[in-house]
Every structure is written in structure tokens, then in C-alpha cells.
Write a structure and sequence with these properties.
This protein is an alpha+beta fold. The protein is built from two helices and three strands; from the N terminus they run αβαββ.
Length: 123
């Protein structure tokens, strides 16, 4: 007698969940976020630039090149977002940081990091 009860309960739960999902799609559309909704997207990027860590011209140029790469990446990210999820995209913030690495067990150079904030309108 206990066996039919065990099989009936999961079947009823499955039917109820399926019906509820169908209703949600009909009543609320495909997603709780509509096509005109805006969301914020944050992208972080980090890479290492091998270079001398002293104050030479080569060191300064390596840091400038790393920052330029971060800015260019931020500028191109809206294209990636438009290709994937966004109808419209706007760059809102950029945070770039550089830190020196030097020592005997790791190569000399700079860690370059960038955090980019975007506001996108979903497709």
C-alpha cells in the first residue's frame, strides 16, 4: 500500500511543476528581465608584462603599453557584449592598476589589472 503512494507523489509534483512553468512563460514572457531592461556588467582582466622594474625608459614604456592594452580591451568589450546579450552598451567606469613583481623566484615585470564597468540594455 505504501508503494503506490511513493510513486504518485513525485508524479504529481512533476505535473504541478510543469504546469507552473507553462503558466510563467505565458504570463511573464521568457525571462523576468525584459528587452528594455538595463543591467550592469563588470569585466576584470589581469596579465603579466615582463620588464625591468627600475625607473628606466624601457620600464616606463612597458607600463604604458600594458595600460594601453587594458584601455583598448575596455573599448572593444561593448562589441563582445552586443554580439552576446546587449542591444546597447555604454562604458561607465575603468579602473587600471599596475604592480611590480621582482624577486629571485619570479621574473621581473608588472602585473597589469583592469576592471571595466558597463551598462547594457538587453536584447
Amino acid at each position: 500500500m505504501l508503494r503506490p503512494f511513493v510513486f504518485v507523489v513525485p508524479l504529481l509534483m512533476l505535473v504541478t511543476a510543469s504546469s507552473a512553468a507553462d503558466r510563467i512563460v505565458i504570463e511573464h514572457g521568457a525571462s523576468p528581465l525584459g528587452a528594455n531592461d538595463q543591467v550592469r556588467v563588470n569585466v576584470s582582466m589581469t596579465f603579466f608584462v615582463p620588464a625591468s622594474t627600475d625607473a628606466t625608459e624601457a620600464s616606463v614604456k612597458a607600463q604604458e603599453h600594458a595600460r594601453k592594452l587594458l584601455y583598448e580591451s575596455a573599448g572593444k568589450e561593448c562589441d563582445n557584449l552586443r554580439a552576446a546579450i546587449a542591444r546597447d552598451c555604454r562604458l561607465e567606469s575603468i579602473n587600471v592598476s599596475m604592480s611590480r613583481t621582482y624577486g629571485q623566484q619570479i621574473p621581473q615585470g608588472f602585473n597589469a589589472a583592469g576592471n571595466f564597468g558597463f551598462r547594457v540594455t538587453l536584447k
